[in-house]
Amino acid sequence: MYWETTRDPDFEKVVAMLAPRGRMILMAGRDARPVFPVGPFYVKGLSLHGFAMFNSTPAEQQASAADINRWLAEGKLLPRIDRVLPLSAAAEAHQLQEDNTLRKSGTLCGKIVLVP
Question: What is the pLDDT of residue 84?
């Protein structure tokens, strides 16, 4: 499974990485119009699923949050954290995120954590 959270997904790269019958979850890029490698996609028997949090009911979100919290506590989910900054650096963190998301600066590889 590959979970895509970038604004401009690279389907060529992802399809090549997925194993036969693999799944790709899209969770970003509403305005994206990337090239899609139809042939390699269907030959490998892949599937593509869109996920938008706002389509989930409150009960579904609550159940998902409980699962995620349990998996984190059990060490089954290990988020990639690029850097930890103090809350006072929130503006810097926001700029860093914009530079990487919108301008593709490539200076971030993981989440930014702000601590009080």
Answer: 98
